Batch of 2 targets.
Target 1
Amino acid sequence: MTSGGDAAGMNPAVKSAVDYARKCGMTPYVVEWGLRGLIEGLIHEATDDRISGILHRGGTVLGSSRSKRFFEHSFRKVAYENLQKVGISKLVVVGGDGSFNALNQFYSDFGVPFAGIPATIDNDIAGTDYCLGVDTALNMIRQSVDSIRDTAASFSRAFVIETMGRDCGYLAMTSALANGADVCLVPEVPYDLDSIAERLRVNKENGQRYVLGVVAEGTGMGETLTRWMGDALGMDARLTVLGHVQRGGSPTVYDRIMAHKFAVAAIDGLIAGDQSQVVVFKDGVFGSKAISEIADTKHVVDADLLKLSADLSS
Ligand code: F6P
């Protein structure tokens, strides 16, 4: 099943999990619409007509949801009964930490083991360096920034581009570096507008004809930074909020390969007897962590990335 915010890579993860589970002698099923589907019994055998031709598609063809009803024991009991009816003994959930916590509660209630596959464009799940969907989102952002650069240069304007990521600045920092932005504001790094202004004025005097700023949505600074750029630099300034375009798009090669590896690790973990684990990719190696370790730890952005992008905040 897929659950929570959709992310590119969910479909290849579902396909790989189904194929590999079958190869291991299991009978895989799919749950439509995430936690809502568990409650409503939208559970079907994973026949080829359901899972073929999905690998290259963005989002999740199974559908997803953020179900409030799942917080209530009575609805979780209905979900358990639905699984019992079709004889399901283990779950693989592709989603974020909210979904993993929900499934962990379900495990405490009814003892149904699950393996979580981290998927969110925010890349903010503790314990793993990578979450499915991130590479595709970064490429969607790159494509948008390339287009914005064309018009920014044509009109000699300052542009601020707001990326998603909730409280995490990973998408903003990586995009700022990958796309040669002049400014990057993220929640994790303090910023100094006076010194940014000084730097940008020098650049302008040296002939720079346009300015690009990337701001993480978690800072809430999109509009303020845009107004400030216009005033401080005496330039026409515009804000582009990229929004949900970042969540769509055909999964990149990296997301497809990572989806496959995450899925195989999830099934192997369940076969080995994992009960309520999340598959993680840490320092180049796949492993698994207890959900408690993930839920109780705050995600920390890679120190090298923070260091590299710090120059864009001052
Ligand atoms: O967690 C993924 C994410 O896309 C965040 O980056 C963003 O803040 C949020 O979901 C948007 O949520 P919704 O799709 O409910 O508007």
Target 2
Amino acid sequence: MEKKMLFPRVGGFLHGGDYNPEQWLDRPDILEEDVRLMKKAGINSVTLGVFSWAVYEPAEGEFHFEWLEEIMDRLYANGIYTVLATPSGARPAWLDAAYPEAMRVSSRGVRNHHGGRHNHCMSSPKYREKVAIIDRKLAERFGKHPGLLMWHISNEFSGMCFCPICVKRFQEYLEKKFDHDIEKLNHAWWTTFWSHHYNSFEQIEPPYENGERSVLGLNLEWQRFTSWNTDDFMNHEIRVLKDITPEIPVTANFMELFGGLDYQKMAGSLDVISWDSYPRFHNDYESFQDTMFRNAFQHGVMRSLKPGKPFMLMESTPSLVNWHPYNKLKRPGVHKLASLQAVACGSDTVQYFQWRKGRGSAEQFHGAVVDHNGSEDTRVFRDVAELGEILGRIAPVVGTVVRTRAALIFDWDNRWAIHDAQAFGGQSKQYEETCMKIWLEFHKMGVEMDILRSDTDLEGYDLAVVPMLFMLQKGTAENLIRFVKKGGQLLATYCTGYVDEDQLCYLGGFPGDGLSDLFGIVDEEIDTLYPSDRNRIVFPDGTEWEVRDYAELLRVKDARILGTYGDDFYEGTPALTCKEYPVDTSAGQAGTPAGQAGSLADQPGTSAGSAGPSAGRAYYLAARCSTAQMRSLFLQMLRDAGIPTEDLPEGVDHHVRYGEEGTYDFYLNYNTEPVTLSGVKGLELISGERAEGALELGRYGVAVVRR
Ligand code: GAL
């Protein structure tokens, strides 16, 4: 496997962060001192220009880039590279005064005032024109600068605009999507309901807060449109840059599980995925371990936007943020732990917001490497410098990647659909949480999963879990059927396959689009439980799983029943089923199972007369259960898929990065107590010592072992 280095020129990790020298142009002493301190902290890159438009272009058409050139030159001369942002995330006052159409319109149809950030209309031709001008100037001036590593497009895209230009564009988007046929749209959106029929595309308004919000197809398309339009805007910027600097990679910094934009689609427009990670460390509502594991999932989501490639941790705080409900300091050791967690999960960078604290305005108290006191003799500075050294020691990891044969389907479009569905429990849908818990359970067994959109072709994967895939895209069911028939181990859960991509319910039995046959069941009803309600799934061997929140009532066609409900009027009816498909290399006929009850331990792969690991299996779990209790099922699937597992001590996280010249195991201890791992052999890169079996990890300790 070849190395997938993002920045071969750098030859190591990027260690750096957002740097705002434009706020300090009247303090050349500080700008000089910055370079000295950066070198001391092992900083080799900065992100410049994120919100610098008003300094670049203080009045329309009047450009000033000398300051930036001077800074980039000086940094480069000192071995510090630049990630250069386009400044479209916030606009100068003159621009809004001259072109008010650039300002966003709210969901009540009222135009915002100037100010803030992310406050622009993505459709406005004038705004796009102004952005293209400044971007072109930057590319022309700095495109050939030896210090330039990458373009950072705008900043954390987000939000919706309801202005007349956006409305018009939305109508055009719909017209194209529905082949200029308004009746197609009326059918897809089921508009006869409440007399919501449209006679023409011009009549369609976005879902204003005080307007139409009951047509789910409209809501969904508005989300898709906003995401598409943002991507289109981003591509407008990318085109300008690529035109002049085709060789410079582009990224845009994403935010966690931000629901407003379909990152799975936008990822296609970017060369590299980057994201901003701000976990609420040491909070009072979950354990520190939980915070860390949750964050591992977030990294997994980002990594999986481009599987098989490193990503970038574009922002993280070296100490605290200023916008959490309570802004707690990272406890000693946590800076190293969280930064190396990103690396373990596949990041080739550790970058911060921000290098130096500003004196005024909203972020004056946000953590930074250099505090207002300007000193290098601080806890935070020492933490950062220590990390810089460690990144140097583990540099051989750069360009290696995370690989796996297991997949979790987690889909942005489905998020929109299931959350907008006026069904199930208001508080208990918890789609994201459900996906995350399953991912973590696998992860704690030492199994990494790629986190993929629902229409991904699962070729190359042997195991897939599809939680709550309420909405099926065109081709999703087909992919899943092919996957199982080729021998894949598949688990789908309650709430799968209710609606198609227009959010129209499938007729003829859920899950739709052929999945009812694949699983050999029909989901006839769903019982949404009150928070204190419980049911059980009982297995023939006496095991029980607790059921909360959701319980579907199944009719079994030709699946094997593995577990049945233990209580209520549906006691004794199927709750977990499996249908087997002996592998047919011509991908033709699927085998059908015996329809009697059995236990998980009786499953093929472990019992005599089984179809063996050469059988695909489609499991259907009709109820929400604790993932810890579901472990037996996961283990069975993993065994049948031939995917190894491992026993890790509580609170220890293990990730593996694979490369041509080596395989690197990352062990992270999320406990305050030391732990000892056994069976670890290889060179531990941080200490430079060989591990010969036992490996001790101290409080929040990290080890990077080259096998
Ligand atoms: C990010 C943003 C940065 C900064 C940071 C503070 O969301 O991209 O510009 O505001 O938050 O945590």
